[in-house]
Amino acid sequence: MTVLARAIEATRRYGDVLALDRVSLDIRAGELVGLLGPNGAGKSTLINLFVGLRRPTSGTVELLGGSPADPAVRRGIGVTPQETGLPDALKVGEIISFVSAHHPKHRDKADLLERFRLADLAKRQIGGLSGGQKRRLAVALAFAGNPRVVFLDEPTTGLDVEARRTLWEGIRSFHTDGGTVVLTSHYLEEIEALAQRVVVVGRGRVLADGTVKAVRDVVGVRRVSFAAPAVPDLPGILRSSIEDGRVHLLTTDSDLLVTELVRTGTAFADLQVRPTSLEEAFITITAKEEARV
Questions:
Q1: DSSP the chain
Q2: What is the CATH topology of the domain spanning 3-216?
Q3: 111-161 pLDDT, tens digit each
Q4: pTM of the entire structure?
Q5: Quick check: 31 pLDDT over 90?
Q6: So where are the chain's domains?
């Protein structure tokens, strides 16, 4: 598959802070890639390198076969950063026309308004929009230039459930039509719902890269849950919690844990064992990285 964006041993420092540490990553045509990581992990820095907002301290970053610093190359991408500032006096339809005019090939404005459910707001001034409506508009603008690849940094932050699902539909539609998407999100269910490929970033490095199932399986963690009044003291527990009378345990050896549960005579009921969620795998992967430091 054609590589549209590539980082090769990319390192980025901000003074004494090492934001990215020799990251190598390919984004291929037609992929929908989710970047996961805690605050300060390096996700936004990696996006900024790909879209030309920052340059690597060392290493190489390529975009659409050229340099992200080249304005002609950047015409082939769409971007929604974490924070955007749009002119309050312009109307929604006007700002879409303005952004579209900077691209030789752009998406039909009516289609874009409909796809992101902005048609009813086309004649509204941006200054009169709610925060969620402004965010929807900012994401829609990333698609205005009919890009080959779109980079979305926390695209649904601050949106309610309905607005988030509207954006999901727009992103999926673009991807179904052959577009490539790279997005970051703190909403792990969002990554599970959208991404085909998940890249976990921590302390400026890639910790895991694969499908949602592969990221779950990379740590071999299982979730054991049962009804009990307290968390038992058993070996092999990576993480524990108790909610509404149910104990939840993460372990790499569920068979051994259940055996010990029975052997020690612990009182429990309604035992369940299942694969870990992406969120639990993410926590385990990043916790392991923290423990190594």
A1: --EEEEEEEEEEEETTEEEEEEEEEEEETT-EEEEE--TTSSHHHHHHHHTTSS--SEEEEEETTB-TT-HHHHTTEEEE-SS----TTSBHHHHHHHHHTTSSS---HHHHHHHTT-GGGTTSBGGGS-HHHHHHHHHHHTTTT--SEEEEESTTTT--HHHHHHHHHHHHHHHHTT-EEEEE-S-HHHHHHH-SEEEEEETTEEEEEE-HHHHHHTTT-EEEEEE-SS----TTEEEEEEETTEEEEEES-HHHHHHHHHHTT---EEEEEEEPPHHHHHHHHHHHHHHH-
A2: Rossmann fold (3.40.50)
A3: 999 999 999 999 999 999 998 899 999 999 999 999 999 999 999 887 888
A4: 0.81
A5: yes
A6: 3-216, 222-275
